[in-house]
Amino acid sequence: MHSIQVGNRKISPNEEPFIIAEMSGNHNGSKERAIEIIKRAAETGVDCLKFQTYTADTITLASNKPDFVINDDKNLWNGRQLHGLYEEAHTPWEWHEELFKTANDLGMIAFSSPFDQTAVDFLETLNVPMYKVASFEITHLPLIKRIGQTGKPVIISTGMASVEEIEIAIRTAKQGGTDDIILLKCTSQYPANASDANLETIADMAERFGVQVGLSDHTLGIGVGIAAIGYGATVIEKHFTIDRSQGGVDSEFSMEPDEMKALKEETSRAWHARGKTHYEGTASEQKSKQFRQSIYPSQDIAMGEAFSAENLKICRPGLSLAPSFWEELIGKPAKRAFEMGERLNESDL
Question: From residue 270, how far is each of 22, 222, 224, 231 by CA, in Å?
């Protein structure tokens, strides 16, 4: 499983997790708010700011027929006409260059999810370093092929996809011309329930498809994202906003700055904590062994005097003979004289 270079950042199981803040439609139609979101994201320390590139007309039809209206009581956007929703949520293409530059100037990588081939062509004029295939687009093979033709790394969110659909998407991207592929485990529910995250799938995906795997997380809070690191996730993506109370199409399941900062910090700790299989204690633990208990004379003992529960005691510190030698000592004559508190050695057995 090879590492993937994106700008000045390497994505790899041997590197700290790559954290993506997804702006989506949380700019609420204001370029000034979009710029402020980018600035606040940079302050949290995330690696990357992700956009979405489409217009209402490139992603759907301006129709009021039932097929084009969301009808799902459990959906955040129930009752919304698709064209109207996407018109509200889209990031105007004429903003992209300035927004990307703002993110780059603040030390973040900027890239996007295109939703049709024309969006890829447009993003290529901005020299984006990688692409994201949204979970709903995993069966959009012409789009994936076009992204693959750029030769740039591609992150594919798997959402509701079957094993076969994932295999076809990977094959299509590779046939297009890229070998740098990362899958994201994703629950396409907004917000998602933690009980539906099924994080064990991350390790299975990595083994099954032979690529790096991360998490596109729509749950509330940071717990699921942190837990994903323990299953081998190399990338965590979360939607981001300045303040959920200010509203926005994705605000309900988006992270605020303090939460995103905590996610960045705690996923780093989780990654460092994975370590390796190791027993016997670390180098930093060696001094702690003195806080074990060991066998010490609890009073002066003359040479030849029998060791007993009256003249020996198991106590702290752990610098004398280990308690495992207790039965072997009791009843045996002392080979030499001992003072109370003097260490015993194996040579004294």
Answer: 22, 12, 12, 10
- As a whole number of angstroms, the distance between CA 145 and CA 139 comes to 11
Residue 180: what are its φ and ψ, rounded to 5°?
-95, 90
Residue 162 contacts residue 139 (beta carbons within 8 Å):
no
According to the model, what pLDDT value does residue 18 have?
A: 98
pLDDT on residue 242: 93
Terminal C-alpha separation, the chain: 54
Q: Report CA dihedral (274, 276, 281, 283) to the nearest 10 degrees.
A: -90
- Rounded to 5°, angle at Cα 29 from 24 and 30: 105
Query: Do β-strands 9-11 and 4-6 pair in parallel, antiparallel, or remain unpaired?
Result: antiparallel
Element (H, E) at 209: helix 200-209
Cα dist from 199 to 88, 159, 238, whole Å? 33, 13, 15
Higher pLDDT, 321 or 288: 321
Cβ-based burial of 286 (10 A; exposed 0-12, middle 13-18, buried ≥19): exposed
In the chain the domains, ranked by start, together with CATH numbers, are 15-54+90-274 (3.20.20.70), 289-348 (3.90.1210.10)
Say how far apart CA 300 and CA 298 lie, in whole Å.
7
Helical (H) or strand (E) element with 117:
helix 117-125
DSSP state of 196: G
Sequential DSSP letters for 210-235:
-SEEEEEE-SSSSHHHHHHHHTT--E
Please give the Cα distance from 92 to 29 (Å, whole number): 8
At residue 251, φ and ψ (nearest 5 deg) are: -60, -35
**Over the chain, what is the mean pLDDT?**
94
Interior CA angle at 298 toward 296 and 303, to 5°?
Answer: 80
Other Cβ atoms closer than 10 A to 104:
15
The mean pLDDT of 302-313, rounded to a whole number, is: 96
Closest Cα partner for 108 from 233, 18, 32?
18
